[in-house]
Design a protein that fits this description.
alpha/beta; 7-stranded mixed sheet; 4-stranded antiparallel sheet; 11 strands; elongated
């Protein structure tokens, strides 16, 4: 292939890499806003692949000025992709049918990307007359670009730049590719001055978007949360947001509220003190999740606790909750306790590799709305918890709402039970969440006699027995076990979310 067409190969790589990023952005934003990541990514990929074929078909209708068409494709992808994150978030706030915008973006980007290779092939082939070399070169750069985009997005772009800066940056790269083509093949482009002016204007707009991405993010995020945002960070694993209204501070992970300081004590007292009252020994405790330090705060009320191992995947969550004054005033600086050892790793991997034995294992993880989280509610996961438990030890699992997601709650209950453990379910009202439930389990039968002598704000010996009573509308018995090979829990949970939304 002639040297003069190598620049076109570079633009192929750019378009392919950026297009891959756009589809990952659409899937990730939709999962962030709507949950059910399997559904969102499946729809995005399916529509994108179909749109690629449609774009390839449409390309045959362009007969003249192919360089103009190619530049227009670059500009179109740059605009559509560069604005993709912003349009998705705005549509979620202001439009009732978010799916229409999501589908339209996916199809438009796919059509433009699908038309690119046939147009480029025809441009080169008119001069080179060597179809096999032309196609092999174009497809090689196209596939390599897709790989670069697929790797760069989760490892570099999203954690370092966030959704808005990433989409604006990819849009800018597409526009730069168009400008390079206009510079190298300007004599073959009709109305070259108009195209140059448009390209420079769009590029300037993308640069402005990158520079002011944080400001845009703050304004848009303000529409997603009812209270004032006081802290926001996109970590390698999740989006962490803190909001505040008067004395009420709330922490959100990927848009889902994790606690409200106005009532979190209800949740964490029930999570910790109910199983603690069942223990014969309280010296060693394992907390899986709980990076906010609230569960650790309650555990540290027991003087006989000698060591707490806390496993949380996200080191940034630990850093925020061990340094932010709004959180420190509530978790009482528990994450900096000498008794606490923190492991920043996946809970599943920790259990698989650990040889430690514990008196109490507290599973305080986010709700099972994705495959990665559903794995941490599987029968194999509870089997590994059991293997790390002393003979008289207890496991307690936050188990979502028995009222709003009854099948999900009792699926967790039955999954724990399937590992030959005695299980007791209980629940209470947490105003920020509604009716919220837990399951505690042991190799031995458990009682409902709650007895503790630490300070609490809600829980007492008198009201604890009521936590084990469930209404008829909070019980579901037709549930399957959540297995690694058949993650039914995520389906139960997402059905409940769809019903209540």
């Amino acid at each position: 292939m002639s040297r003069k067409y190598r620049l076109l190969m570079l633009t192929t790589l750019i378009i392919s890499g950026c297009s891959m990023c756009y589809e990952l952005i659409i899937g990730a934003v939709s999962s962030y806003l709507l949950g059910n990541s399997t559904m969102q990514y499946s729809i995005t990929i399916g529509l994108y692949m179909a749109a690629l074929g449609l774009g390839s078909y449409i390309s045959k209708f362009f007969k003249k000025n192919l360089f103009n068409v190619f530049v227009a494709i670059e500009l179109g992808i740059g605009i559509a992709g560069g604005m993709s994150s912003l349009l998705l978030f705005l549509s979620n706030i202001y439009i009732s049918n978010y799916a229409v915008v999501m589908y339209s973006e996916t199809i438009l980007i796919g059509i433009l990307a699908g038309a690119e290779i046939p147009i480029m092939t025809r441009i080169i082939e008119e001069d080179e007359k060597n179809l096999s070399v032309t196609l092999s070169s174009i497809f090689s750069f196209d596939y390599i670009g897709g790989l670069v985009g697929a790797v760069a997005f989760p490892l570099l772009l999203l954690p370092k730049l966030g959704f808005f800066s990433t989409s604006f940056l990819c849009g800018l790269l597409n526009i730069i590719a168009a400008i390079l083509i206009l510079y190298r093949f300007g004599e073959l482009v009709a109305h070259i001055r108009i195209y140059r002016a448009i390209s420079v204007g769009i590029a300037a707009g993308m640069i402005v978007g990158i520079v002011f991405a944080d400001n845009i993010s703050e304004r848009v995020e303000g529409g997603l949360y009812r209270d004032k945002i006081i802290y926001m960070e996109q970590t390698e694993y999740q989006k962490i947001v803190l909001t505040k209204h008067r004395d009420d501070v709330r922490l959100y992970i990927d848009g889902n509220c994790q606690f409200s300081t106005a009532d979190e004590y209800r949740y964490h007292e029930a999570l910790v003190h109910i199983p603690m009252s069942e223990l014969e020994s309280r010296s060693r405790v394992l907390i899986l999740g709980g990076g906010d330090g609230m569960a650790a705060r309650e555990v540290l009320k027991y003087d006989e606790v000698e060591k707490i191992d806390l496993v949380d995947l996200d080191a940034e969550m630990i850093r925020i909750c061990s340094t932010n004054q709004n959180i420190l005033s509530v978790n009482q600086n528990s994450l900096n306790s000498d008794k606490l050892v923190i492991y920043n790793m996946d809970a599943y991997e920790y259990l698989k590799d650990s040889q430690e034995q514990y008196d109490l294992i507290i599973v305080d993880l986010p709700d099972p709305n994705s495959e990665s989280l559903s794995k941490l509610y599987s029968n194999i996961f509870y089997r590994m918890c059991k293997n790390r438990l002393n003979e008289t030890g207890v496991i307690v699992v936050q188990s979502t709402s028995p009222y709003y997601a009854a099948k999900a709650f009792w699926c967790i209950h039955e999954t724990i039970k399937s590992e030959e453990l005695y299980v007791k379910a209980y629940h209470l009202q947490v105003p920020a969440f509604g009716d919220w439930g837990f399951n505690m389990a042991s190799r031995r039968e458990l009682t409902e006699d709650v007895d503790f002598d630490v300070d609490t704000r809600y829980l007492s010996r008198e009201n604890a027995s009521a936590l084990f009573r469930f209404g008829k509308d909070e019980i579901a018995d037709d549930v399957e076990i959540n297995r690694l090979t058949k993650p039914v829990l995520m389906e139960y949970y997402n059905r409940a979310v769809d019903f209540w939304n």
